[in-house]
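My main concern about presentation is that the manuscript never shows what a single data entry looks like. An entry of this sort, consisting of the sequence and the corresponding backbone structure tokens, reads as follows:
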Amino acid sequence: MRIAQTVIAPVLQVHVCEIEPDQEDTPQTSHNTGNRGTAGFGSTGHT
């Protein structure tokens, strides 16, 4: 189960990162998405 989460989490993050900038063309939004992506990756990796 842990492996599945580790594989799904990054994929979802990538999809969100691709959708977010498309919906909102704001540099701040992109920055927030980037920060969130890193946090998600770190949390998943540590867990």
